[in-house]
Write a structure and sequence with these properties.
Shape: flat
Structural class: mainly alpha
Largest sheet: none
Length: 180
Amino acid sequence: MNTTKKQKLLLISLMIITIILFTTYYKYPYHPDHYTIGQYTYTLIEIGYAPWVLHPSSLFGYYPLSIPSGLEFFVAVLHNLSSLDLPILFYMLSIFSGLFAVAGVYVVMSEFSSFETSFITAFVLGTSVYFVKNVSNTASSRMLNIIFYPLFILMLFKIFKVYKENRKISIKYLLPSTSI
């Protein structure tokens, strides 16, 4: 077997191990944010709008006494598109976000080091108890911060690399980094 097939097989096994860890760790959500976000999402689904949004800037939490509501809107749209129950939807969202975070750490590390180092780093993150506990079967906006940090850091390094070579800021990496 050549090295690319071995690498693909190892990455697939890492994703399978991550899925197994996330599906067997917690049966019920433990984090209080999960229940708060679930209630806001349920209100969005039932009423059809967010009564707590007083100003457009309150969607991002910039208005006084407002709540950032991006995750609630995202989950409500997923609920309307898929017709799944909210607990199942939160459970599947946590599994996919855990996979996304492990893949993001692998991509960042593969930019700077060899396959072995990046694989071991992604394996350590995917199997660490704290990471699995905080991302497994929960709905929290902290989860989105955890999974997007590696990609944001990668975009910052790419922007710096292009700037160092051309003395220009590349829009190719600037737009994804601002959207993350």
